[in-house]
Specification:
By secondary structure, the protein is α+β, with helices and mostly antiparallel strands. The chain has 4 helices and 2 strands, in the order H-H-E-H-H-E.
Length: 69
Amino acid sequence: MLDPRFRLATAAGFVPSPLIIKAILTGAPYPIRGMLIQGGNPLLSYANAGETFLALKKLDFLAVSETFP
């Protein structure tokens, strides 16, 4: 069963950034192993770039789709 905090985000297709970074690092409420980033740079837009960097490195799969080179 999904965590109730993620119910709306799951329906919308995304999880709010602070929650996803914490979930990747801690594995709670469930392990996050992959991520699709579209039209943004989480290292520049999320708070605590160092923690975000560690979380992205921990993923088994990361795909990025960007409109600008």
